[in-house]
Specification:
Protein name: Methylenetetrahydrofolate reductase (NAD(P)H)
Keywords: Oxidoreductase
Structural class: alpha/beta
Strand content: 15-25%
Radius of gyration: 19 Å
Helix content: 25-40%
CATH topology: TIM Barrel
Number of strands: 10
Strand order of the largest sheet: 1-2-3-4-5-6-7-10
Organism: Ascidiaceihabitans donghaensis
Shape: globular
GO molecular function: oxidoreductase activity
Largest sheet: 8 strands, parallel, barrel
Order of helices and strands: HEHEHEHEHHEHEHEEHHEHEH
InterPro entries: FAD-linked_oxidoreductase-like
CATH architecture: Alpha-Beta Barrel
CATH class: Alpha Beta
Number of domains: 1
Number of helices: 12
Length: 308
């Protein structure tokens, strides 16, 4: 597949951004943690107003830190979506308390529900489906409920390397979306190859799963950093993109940027407007400022209001 360059370097159009990539990056979201957010003096200096900011809830992070970060981001004009990892939520009472805190203190009305990276649940919940079944988010009037997607599978869910349990869960979530008023979307793990992402997204649609996809993309980072996070997060076959580059020792300390995967996805979206990837979701592995600056330099801007 031919690639669109972000910036043309020759002729009268030199310096212009690719309109396909600009369009694809509109409304991008980004992920932070309380400790990484604390390093940013003012998000308004680096993110377009209204950008959706996910707040990752890592095991051991106090809920107070999560809510304080959400409150700050909301006050600075951003669309806040905290994680609710099922396996670190003790019980329904704890879930309701978290929802009430986010809602009452930080004006949050949306959430990313996921199992979480904990092997043994801390309490009653094991999956995002169980969180949805409580009805707590609907009762609180949450408008957007996102769930996890795995373009390359998830060996914690399917140890045999298949997609069976992952796909069964997606069918359940599709049905939940259909029979409720929840506005749902899939926020995915990051991957490094466009071809398998396109095949996965098209296969979901063919199977009747039409939830909008917010595709996970790893932001610019040193190659060694990228490989470390990719292995820790269980990235699948597309890890070979990094491994091939790592064979060239001259590139080990250079930033790895998502130019190729984004330009190929943008080209596919331009040629197939009904392609079900709706937005880009950045994992800022090389730092929030680095990722935000890269996105803006390459045409990205947040679009509001968001529909998914």
């Amino acid at each position: 597949m031919a690639l669109f360059n972000f910036k043309k370097s020759e002729g009268p159009d030199a310096g212009r951004l690719s309109p396909e990539v600009e369009s694809f990056l509109q409304g991008y979201s980004i992920e932070v943690m309380p400790r990484t957010a604390a390093k940013v003096d003012n998000f308004g200096d680096i993110l377009p107003e209204g950008t959706r900011v996910y707040i990752a809830h890592i095991e051991g992070t106090p809920i107070e830190d999560m809510v304080d970060t959400a409150k700050r981001l909301n006050a600075e004009g951003f669309d806040v979506m905290p994680h609710f990892p099922a396996r670190i939520i003790k019980d329904a009472s704890t879930l309701q308390d978290w929802i009430a805190r986010y809602q009452g203190e930080a004006n949050v009305d949306q959430a990313l529900l996921l199992a979480g990276g904990v092997t043994t649940p801390h309490g009653d919940f094991d999956s995002s489906m169980q969180l949805l079944e409580t009805g707590a988010f609907d009762a609180a009037g949450f408008k957007h409920l996102h769930v996890a997607g795995h373009p390359e599978g998830n060996k914690d869910i399917d140890p045999d390397g298949s997609m069976k349990n992952v796909d069964d869960a997606l069918r359940w979530k599709q049905d939940f979306s259909t029979r409720t008023d929840a506005k749902m979307a899939l926020a995915t793990q990051f991957a490094f190859e466009a071809g398998p992402i396109i095949e996965w997204a098209d296969a979901l649609k063919a199977a009747g799963i039409d939830l909008p996809i917010h595709i996970g993309i790893a932001g610019p980072a040193k190659l060694q950093t990228m490989i470390k996070f990719a292995i820790a997060c269980g990235v699948g076959p597309s890890l070979r993109v990094l491994q091939r580059r790592a064979k060239d020792v001259t590139k080990l300390l250079l930033p790895f940027e998502p130019t190729e995967v984004i330009s190929e996805l943008a080209a596919h979206k331009a040629a197939n407007p009904d392609f079900n990837i709706a937005q880009v979701h950045f994992f800022p592995l090389g730092g929030i400022k680095t990722n935000a600056n890269w996105a803006i330099e390459n045409g990205g801007a947040a679009a509001t209001p968001k529909n998914a």
